[in-house]
Design goal:
Layout (H helix, E strand, L loop, with lengths): L7 H37 L2 H33 L3 H24 L1
């Protein structure tokens, strides 16, 4: 590191170094971007990749359908859950039978 608090020449050297580094990084990014695009082109023309892509899309659709069906089934199950009503009717029937038995016993 150069120590030059007021020396403007030092700043211009640092600026020049950073500019060179910036240009080098731009070239490297361009190279990597070109390689990435080439790999994407190769994948787009690959039959196995396209088949897998289509199968993944089908799986996503099936998962959405399964979720919708599970939600529908849960809703219908809760609509037809008659156990609480059945238990309440059984309790009322038992209570009425007990009252009738008492009434007959007292008569």
């Amino acid at each position: 590191q150069l120590a030059c608090p007021l020396d403007l020449g030092c700043h211009s050297v640092k600026k020049s170094q950073l500019s060179k580094q910036k240009d080098s990084l731009k070239q490297h990014i361009h190279l990597l971007s070109s390689k990435h695009e080439e790999t994407k082109r190769k994948l787009a023309s690959d039959d196995i990749h396209n088949t897998l892509d289509g199968l993944e899309q089908k799986i996503r659709v099936y998962e959405q359908n399964n979720f919708g069906l599970r939600d529908f089934i849960e809703g219908k199950t809760s609509e037809i859950n008659y156990n609480p009503v059945k238990d309440e009717v059984a309790a009322i029937t038992k209570e009425l039978n007990d009252l009738i038995i008492k009434s007959v016993a007292n008569a």
